[in-house]
User: What shape does this take?
Amino acid sequence: LMDGKTEDDSGDPVDQQSVKLQALVLYSAPVDLSMVPVGASVGAFLRVPPPTPRTPKATARLYQQASPVSYVTADDSPTLLLAGDADTNVPHRHAMALQAALQKVHVPSQLLTIPRGTHGPTFGLAAGAPRPTDWPDYHGEMVRWFDEHLKPHFLAFSDFEEDRELHTKWEDDLSAPHAWIYGDLRHAEEL
Assistant: This one.
């Protein structure tokens, strides 16, 4: 889905780091643009009708080429899918299709279905309303997902030989999962 490849040849070590996502959480994501009603919205925007059994193959191919589900590979990031089963904008079957594609190539993935959830970040729950008891704790699951799949990274660069021992000190002192240290570590401030 997101390959993280860069085309920077500047030689700067920061620019040589991968930008590949380590973990992904998708809310109500349209993944197959040929599915109605998403396809109808895309078609209206592009002025190309959505594919039907009678659609020319070239039109159907355009929708397929624009659909994220067409690009799932075994090296994709672990993906948590959140989808309401009452979403009429991006139906639940989009999440199911992506989940199936990810599982087929053995990418860690999980689908959390929100019963009666509609489209949007709150799945239709009014501000301040209590979460229905049959709904999963999707905020807690997102945190758990990132805790499980984000890997600690420490990036330290320095031109000073005497800074080598500081690298270890900083790595031991930092408890955040991601710490970026750049430059002269003798003058680095606490993150």
Notes: The radius of gyration is 22 Å. The chain is about 30% helix and 15% strand. The chain has a mean pLDDT of 77.
